[in-house]
Amino acid sequence: MLQIPTFSHEALDYNVRGRRLMDKGELKEAHSNFMKALKIDPNFEEAWLNLAVVFFTAGKYGKALEVFTEALEMFPESSYVWGAWASYLAVFSGSEEQIEEAFQKALQLDPSNAKAWGGLALHLQENNPEEAENAFRKALEIDPDNEKMRYFFALMLYHHEKGYDAEENLRIILEQAPEYGDAWVLLGKTLFNIGKGREGIEAVQKALELEPDNFSYWEALVLVQKTAGYMRQTRDTLRHMLSMRPHFIKGWKELIEVLEDMGLEHERTKMEDLMNEIIDSSPEYFVGEEGYLVPIEEG
Fold first, then answer.
1. 110 neighbors 131 (Cβ within 8 angstroms)
2. Do 158 and 126 meet the contact criterion of CB atoms below 8 Å apart?
3. Which residues contact 41 (CB under 8 A, 6 or more apart)?
4. pLDDT tens for residues 160-214?
5. Does one domain contain both 14 and 84?
6. Domain that holds residue 297
7. Would you put residue 116 in left (φ > 0), alpha (ψ -120 to 50) or beta?
């Protein structure tokens, strides 16, 4: 979060406490602390922005808009407020002109506002990847230790098939934060795409050592193993996943395909029978978009 000072140690304490509560999802208590901070120091910019984030996180978007509007009136020359406002507009489908104007205003007021450069990069990445790359690089030049921003940059590079640049940024992240599981998974996919299949599999396995119950990491492991042609390992991984989540019908179908490719017809037939037995024993369910059995009333 931002570090905009206040002259009141008490207000600062309430704000810090509110941030910690917000990070833990205790939004009501966080709101109370930010309000106490603002009662002591009504000009405490960061507390205003944190209050807006609390409302936003709680789904009270109208309240968040009210706080942003008041903050812009109170701090019309604050780069941080304009940057936060621009990010809010980007989430809520403000016009391109509005969003661009807000980010430019933030950066005009303070060209060293890394958060605004990062927000601009995230906004541009889909439709203007070249400009987004420039904005990401500017943000990371100012704040090189921002692991989350560097991860988003690497993710964009990965999707635009700039694998070597993505690998470089992911290795920087993992040097700083070796426990960053998502970065290990993305590194694995990236390495696989640039022809380092075995290293890619090892990277995903590293993520699973950190978070063995993260099902999406197991899915990523299947992806790289299967694409690399390691069918026996893919089979074993899918079996483990199905022991974790037996109603993951997509996994059953993938396992059946792998067994067919391996020429294991008897085992393939057995797994197909088991899958059909699970489906038939749940007539009130159907296979949803994510590959799980979903109650019909939720469909």
1. no
2. no
3. 6, 7, 8, 11, 47
4. 999 999 999 999 999 999 999 999 999 999 999 999 999 999 999 999 999 999 9
5. yes
6. 229-299
7. alpha
